[in-house]
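Entry 14. Structure prediction run on the chain below.
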Amino acid sequence: MLSNLGEDKSIYLQISEMIEDEILRDIIKEEEQVPSTTELSKFYKINPATAGKGINLLVDKGIIYKKRGIGMFVQAGAKEQIMEARKASFKETYLKKIISEAKLIGITKEDLKKLIDETSEV
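Output returned:
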């Protein structure tokens, strides 16, 4: 099942992100069933409504869908959709700040590439 919950953000967001992580890692594959709100609420000792809110967030994004009477399943194409959304978020959250700081302190694009290469070798 999913990893432990932290206190850095809302529980329902963590539930949603952990399911996305499991989809990205192929732990839960497209067209496979995801844990139910009951399973999530029992495992994490949280309110079922909180678990449901995390699940519904994924439904709203088109990542998972409901099979009536059976449960929630990963939508075909969900992995690619999650990867694209996370790449866009990565660019906005990290890269723009890194590039801005690099320019401020005189790091060129070439220097930045070199630093990335050096860091990834560690």
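The beta strands are 64-67, 71-74.
Filed with the rest of this week's runs.
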